[in-house]
Write a structure and sequence with these properties.
Strand content: 15-25%
Structural class: alpha/beta
Distance between the termini: 44 Å
Number of strands: 14
Largest sheet: 10 strands, mixed
Radius of gyration: 22 Å
Number of helices: 13
Helix content: 25-40%
């Protein structure tokens, strides 16, 4: 597998929180009271429920989006995923669904959201992105008061789709059902398989067979989406669209995970240097896309080939190339000479002396030795506590309470079976290609942040290019990090692109 030490371990932890803000404490339950759900849930690898009940709290709400008042129903609880082969119960999935009142189910899209990790609950997408309520982080500022305020989300996707936010087994309140244990579903294929069972159960239980169906995964959730899309299409469940947020589609080419070229990170480094005013010349924000285009070309035509020669026979780079790298990133000449094949951990630590920049969002920074830098990623550390405290109080407002801790980040990553299609680490582009071949009408929208140095946008572009020219596969890029939707301005732009994606599919 060729895993590197040092930064590889750090990135593994970062990816374990993908997407969203990494680790952080579990969400503590409310004070003892008459809990709505009295089942004790565990995220331990060997944990399982003896049986499960499909119990849910149902509440009514209103939200204003684009001047229109939307009446909607929130359903928070559990559904049981069963084996398609035997019908035996496999896992009890915790989910929160938002459905528009009065809409015709056959025409109304439904989207399944999940974060990644592996081992991350879907709290980041649920309370950060396009649900009816949103935590306002002030990203990328670290001076916003905490805990963050939870407000009605004017950029919610509720105007175009119903939404189902679901937690993976061993996270949130989701747990395996005996004789399975949580670890039974900790692997690329078994995880996607049990998610397929959940999607099919939700569709059947809510009479959504005719509804247009979408998947929305983030980070490792994009790995899951590619495999899951293929499995659903194979099972006869036709999808309409897949949204990939901050993708990692081929672990074998991410230099933060395996030994190899880091050339795909260069455009992200350039965007980060521009943010801090270190590039020469420094582009204005409006010119960032054109500047990044230049960096893509340098990565493709100059830096990438030079790194390949360096890794192959230690061939030294030219002085002209080193000067170019200094100019387009702001990283010093000495650092480029020291680490020519520059991994994101080194870039994170050395771009600004005495300062640690974020991995998830490199626009966020903190002085080395400060509390905000103590966990290795200030962009993650700053938001964790607010999401942890926000989820249980929000669920209580939906009528769902439970005496267990809501597990934001379980321990699945350390025991995950990454093997997929005879590879030790997954490459899921073939799975996505198979889904597209089975369903030529399937649309894919890939979204990335320019300032994400965990899952760099240029690597996503290269991965998707393997699908060949396909008008059904679109890419969009925004100012921001891994969770582009935390940036107020980028959330507006992403919502507009998502709405266009949904409505253009409906118009075809």
């Amino acid at each position: 597998m060729g895993l590197k030490t040092g930064f590889a371990a750090m990135l593994a932890l970062a990816l374990a929180g993908c997407g969203g803000g990494g680790g952080g404490g579990d969400a503590q339950p409310p004070p003892p009271a008459a809990n709505f759900d009295t089942v004790a849930y565990s995220s331990a690898a060997d944990a399982s429920l003896s049986n499960a009940v499909e119990l849910a709290s149902v509440t009514k709400h209103q939200l204003v989006v684009d001047g229109a008042t939307l009446n909607y129903t929130a359903t928070a609880g559990h559904l049981t995923a069963s084996s398609p082969a035997t019908g035996a119960a496999e896992a009890s999935f915790f989910y929160v669904a938002y459905t528009l009142d009065g809409a015709a189910a056959a025409q109304r899209p439904v989207t399944f959201f999940y974060n990644g990790g592996p081992g991350s609950a879907t709290v980041w997408l649920h309370l950060g992105s396009f649900g009816p309520m949103r935590l306002v982080t002030g990203d990328p500022s670290t001076t916003s008061p905490t805990p963050f305020p939870l407000v009605a989300n004017a950029q919610s996707l509720l105007d175009v789709t119903d939404m189902v936010f679901v937690d993976a087994v061993g996270t949130g309140y989701s747990e395996a059902i005996a004789p399975n244990t949580n670890i039974s579903f900790w692997g690329v294929d078994v995880d996607a398989g049990v998610f397929r069972a959940f999607v099919m159960r939700y569709v059947a239980a809510n009479h959504r067979d005719a509804s247009p169906k979408y998947l929305f995964g983030e980070s490792y959730g994009t790995t899951r989406s590619a495999v899951l899309a293929n499995m659903l299409e194979t099972a006869g469940v036709e999808l309409t669209g897949v949204v990939l947020q901050s993708s990692i589609l081929n672990y074998n080419v991410n230099c933060g995970v395996v030994n190899g070229s880091c050339a795909s990170y260069l455009p992200s480094y350039s965007a980060v240097g521009a943010w801090y005013g270190l590039d020469n010349p420094n582009p204005a924000p409006a010119q960032l896309p054109a500047f990044v285009d230049q960096s893509r070309a340098i990565a493709r035509d100059q830096y990438g080939p030079a790194v390949a020669r360096f890794l192959g026979n230690q061939a030294a780079p030219s002085t002209a190339l080193l000067t170019t790298l200094v100019n387009i990133t702001g990283e010093s000449l000495g650092n480029w000479q020291t680490r020519f094949n520059m991994d994101p951990g080194y870039f994170q630590r050395t771009l600004i002396p005495g300062t640690l920049i974020g991995l998830y969002d490199a626009r966020v920074s903190a002085p080395v030795g400060s509390a905000l830098a103590s966990e290795g990623d200030p962009s993650s550390t700053f938001i964790n506590a607010s999401f942890a405290s926000g989820i249980t109080s929000y669920l209580a407002s939906l009528g769902y309470t439970n005496g267990s801790n809501y597990v934001l980040l379980g321990n699945a990553n350390a025991r995950w079976t990454y093997r997929h299609d005879a590879l030790a680490l997954p490459d899921v582009i073939p799975d996505l290609a198979s889904a597209l071949a089975q369903n030529p009408q399937l649309r894919v929208l890939s979204v990335n942040g320019y300032h994400d140095i965990v899952t760099p946008f240029y690597q996503t572009e290269q991965d998707l290019a393997r699908l060949g020219a396909n008008a059904n596969v679109q890419t969009r890029f925004y100012v921001g990090g891994h969770m582009t939707y935390l940036d107020n301005g980028s959330q507006v732009l992403e919502k507009a692109d998502l709405k266009q994606f949904y409505t253009s599919v409906a118009d075809d």
